[in-house]
């Protein structure tokens, strides 16, 4: 039997600019940079992923395998 695994996946997007993000992953809206950082690092631990900052307004949580 073949197993299906996801090698890399975006698990979540966190942004202070709701007009900048869309897609098929959970999107979390932050009101300011402090909330952006706090939410991203909390989700990083919960989802067992890695946080990457795309720009000043947007971070993603990615699982690398």
What does this structure look like?
The protein has 1 helix and 4 strands. The protein is an alpha+beta fold. The chain has one domain. A 4-stranded mixed beta sheet has the order 2-1-4-3, with helices on one face. The two termini are 21 Å apart.
**Mean residue pLDDT:** 90
Poorly predicted runs of 5 or more residues: none
Distance between the termini: 21 Å
| Computed Rg | 13 Å
Number of strands: 4
Helix content: 10-25%
Shape: globular
Query: In what range is the share of β-strand residues?
Result: 35-45%
Order of helices and strands: EEHEE
Strand arrangement within the widest β-sheet reads 2-1-4-3
Largest sheet: 4 strands, mixed
**Total of helices:** 1
Number of domains: 1
Instruction: Kindly name the structural category.
Output: alpha+beta
Give me the secondary-structure topology.
Layout: E1 8-15, E2 27-29, H1 33-47, E3 50-55, E4 58-64
Parallel strand pairs: 1-2
Antiparallel strand pairs: 1-4, 3-4
Compose a concise summary of this entry.
With 65 residues, this protein is α+β, with helices and mostly antiparallel strands. It has one helix at residues 33-47, and strands spanning 8-15, 27-29, 50-55, 58-64.
Keywords summarizing the entry:
65 residues; alpha+beta; four-stranded mixed beta sheet; 4 strands
């Amino acid at each position: 039997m073949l197993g299906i695994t996801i090698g890399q996946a975006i698990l979540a997007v966190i942004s202070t600019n709701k007009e900048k993000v869309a897609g098929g992953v959970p999107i979390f809206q932050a009101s300011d940079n402090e909330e952006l950082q706090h939410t991203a690092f909390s989700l990083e631990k919960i989802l067992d992923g890695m946080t990457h900052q795309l720009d000043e307004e947007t971070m993603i949580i990615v699982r690398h395998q």
